[in-house]
Structures are given as C-alpha cells and as structure tokens.
Specification:
The chain is an all-alpha fold. The chain is built from eight helices and no strands.
C-alpha cells in the first residue's frame, strides 16, 4: 500500500511538472519580482518630485500652473495602492498606468518650461535633480520592459496547449501588462540641453 501511495505521488508530481504547473509557479514569482522593480522605480521618481518642486519654487515668477500640475499628478499617482495583486486586475492596472503617464507628462512640461529660466538652469541643485530624474526615467523604462517580457512569458504559458488546461484547473488567469497610448513618449527620458541658450517667449 505504501509503495502504491509513493508511486501515485511520484506520478502526480511528474504530471504536474509536465503540464506546466511548476512553470506557472516560477513565472508567477518572476512577474511579482519584476512588478516590484517597476514600483520601486516609480517610487524613486515620486520621492524626487518634492525636491524638484521646492527648487523650482525658488525661481521668481515660475509658471504656477506647471508646478500645480506636477504636484497634483504626483498626488494622483501615489494615491493608487499598487499592490502585487494589481497585475491580475486589468482595469486597476490601466488606471495606474494613466496616473503614471500623467505624471510623466507633467514632469516633461516642467523641464521644458525651465528652459526659459537662466537662473534655474544655472542652479547646480536643479541640474543634479534633473540628471537624477533622467536616470530614474531610464530605470523605469528598463524595469517596465522586464515586467512586460515576464508577463508575456506567463501569458503564453496560460494560453497555449496543453498548459492552458492547467491554467483552467488552477484558475491561473492572464496577467495585465503595461501598455499605454503614448508609451513611446512616456518611456523616453526627458532630455534638456542646459548648454544651449533658451529663447525668451
């Protein structure tokens, strides 16, 4: 009886391995880790914004509307609770992406407007923050790409035969990926040339 039980257990384990069960576990953990990487970079950017805003506020007559948009966009982006479960909720993921995209646009606008303020461009603190922000945008892009590839691998496993049967049995749903209408613009780090004199408008 014991030998039969061991044989059945071994057979079941082989069956699970052959039907992709172990692959689902591995890829699911990878997607979670990749998503955590994306969130870490978005948080890094959010943490930079108060310093950027404080530095820009020191410039006389800086466009208040531009600053307000950045502050409000950051508030909306950080208000969304980005839990690991977000990857399984397409609607919540879309809302999260929209908020992050809005923040990217507001920051890009702020850097463009800053070109019209020579004193701000000459401010070493602002220059350092701008460089850090550009590096963070690049990190976000890399983390997003890694997450997208991880989700793609998981979703292919969930849809292809015969592993799609395992997905149905264990309720493994396809995961939400990062796609936005202006993804190319959002994933491109803002570039500001501080060496070129800005034209006054």
């Amino acid at each position: 009886m014991r030998r039969l039980l061991i044989a059945l257990t071994a057979s079941f384990a082989l069956l699970l391995g052959g039907c992709g069960y172990n692959d689902f576990q591995r890829l699911d953990e990878q997607v979670k880790a990749d998503w955590a990487g994306v969130l870490a970079q978005y948080q890094r950017r959010a943490d930079l914004i108060p310093s950027i805003v404080a530095t820009v506020k020191g410039e006389a007559n800086f466009e208040q509307e531009t600053l307000t948009r950045v502050v409000e966009a950051r508030s909306r982006a950080t208000a969304i609770q980005a839990t690991p479960e977000l990857v399984n909720d397409p609607a919540a993921m879309q809302k999260f992406q929209a908020a992050q995209g809005e923040l990217s646009g507001a920051l890009s606008r702020l850097l463009v407007v800053a070109e019209n303020y020579p004193n701000l461009k000459a401010n070493q603190g602002f220059r350092d923050l701008r460089t850090t922000l550009e590096g963070t945008e690049n990190r976000i892009n890399i983390a997003r790409d890694k997450y997208i590839k991880g989700v793609q691998n998981y979703n292919v496993l969930a849809r292809q035969f015969p592993t799609n049967l395992t997905a149905m049995i264990f309720s493994y749903q396809v995961k939400a990926t990062l796609t936005v209408d202006n993804e190319k613009a959002i994933s491109t780090a803002p570039v500001i040339n501080f060496d070129k004199p800005a034209e006054k408008k």
